[in-house]
Amino acid sequence: MTATDSDPALAVIAARADAGAADTEEIRDLAAAAGLTVAGEVTQTRKEDPALCLGEGKVEELAAVVASEGAGVVVFDNRLGPYQTYNLGNELPEGVEVKDRFRLILDIFGQRAQTKKAQLQVELAELRYELPRVEAKVSLARRDERPGFMGLGEYDESREQDIKARISRIRDELQRIEEDEEHRREQRRESGFDLVALAGYTNAGKSTLLRRLAADLDVDENDDLHPDLDTTAESRDKLFTTLGTTTRRADMDRRNVLVTDTVGFVSDLPHWLVESFKSTLDAVYRADLVLLVVDVSEPVEDIRQKLVTSHDTLYERNEAPIVTVLNKVDKVPEEEVERKREALAALAPDPVAVSGKEGTDVDTLLGRIETDLPPYDRERLVLPMNDEAMSLVSWIHDHAYVRDVDYADEVVVDFEARPSIVERARAKASDLPVPAES
């Protein structure tokens, strides 16, 4: 189609559903998160057209809406293949960009990525998205198709090999980061910390809940020691506010607990996109306990679908126990919370209902964290009365929950801790010098 004056910040939503009405609420939220203003939408219920996704008549209608609204972007709430993107570009006004939901999500990720790891993961996902489109451009070029390739971008003969080489380099760099982070996790465990991860669908209120659970909003006091961590956990009503990981110390009496907030899940993500963010999800997969957070103010069917999405994402690699947290109880009546609790019992047995915003029943959640974390071992050590023993008692205070210390002719310390901490305390005790007999 001929060129038209268009605004690159204005978007028209297009959505196709196999059956029933197409639900555009999520894709509209994603468009807003990407900084786009939705000027209109076109939906259709039909089987996928292999060439255009929508039917030919519906694409003509879409082109007319785009032209009348002066939109510069068409956002499809569907997965578009490279040739579909190319064909749609030929049918829409010249200069209009075509994005599918995954390209849109990558745009959002790119805007939010602040840490080195997040930036690498976004670049990896973008390259994996681009590779089949570059391969399609090679095919089109060999058929002497027109230059420009519409929604696919310009053709560069060497681009395919460049992408594959860059993917390999990023994978190697992310592998090194993953190894460093695993070493850091083990160091934290060796220091007596339990690791709890906040997981769940995007915009469920995880970052708000983290702030409510935190005893100290600056647990990582030396930023140079933790370059992988964001310095704050933003709390905003916006999708994908948290892209990296944010770790804070929880406000608990008996246990030393670090809680990590991670990127939110979203429905219908392809494997390559989830895999690109594997190292961020490792904070969930390798935790001692996962808090799966959902927004209880949403319709029960939406909550159920989001729980299914979350469990599917966690299923293959997560080994930690999962506690479902029904967040945002301040938005709904108590009887509605109970009704949804019963309706979701199969997916979320014995959930905890809280309000991260208001602090409602957060103490109950803290108690549940303590209950569901791996149990502590209890130990009682009898130590000689000397300086070395006093240093060990100080170490135990730093790494364990001390129930009692009795100072008499000997030092008797009664404490609870992770099994590995108990073993180290025993080993340190056995190394203490035996006092000389008088």
List the helices and strands and how they pair.
Layout: E1 7-17, H1 25-33, E2 37-45, H2 56-69, E3 71-76, H3 82-91, E4 97-100, H4 101-112, H5 116-142, H6 159-190, E5 193-200, H7 206-213, E6 214-216, E7 246-250, E8 256-261, H8 271-276, H9 278-285, E9 289-295, H10 300-315, E10 322-327, H11 334-343, E11 352-353, H12 362-372, E12 377-383, H13 387-399, E13 401-407, E14 411-417, H14 419-430
Parallel strand pairs: 1-2, 1-3, 3-4, 5-8, 5-9, 9-10, 10-11
Antiparallel strand pairs: 6-7, 7-8, 12-14, 13-14
Q: What coarse outline follows from CA principal-axis ratios?
A: elongated
Helix and strand run: EHEHEHEHHHEHEEEHHEHEHEHEHEEH
Distance between the termini: 102 Å
Helix content: 40-55%
Number of continuous helical runs: 14
- Number of E strands: 14
Mean pLDDT: 84
Class by helix and strand content? alpha/beta
Describe the largest sheet: 7 strands, mixed
Keywords: Coiled coil, Cytoplasm, GTP-binding, Magnesium, Metal-binding, Nucleotide-binding
Binding site for GTP: 200-207, 261-264, 327-330, 355-357
Subunit structure: Monomer. Associates with the 50S ribosomal subunit.
Pfam families: GTP-bdg_M, GTP-bdg_N, MMR_HSR1
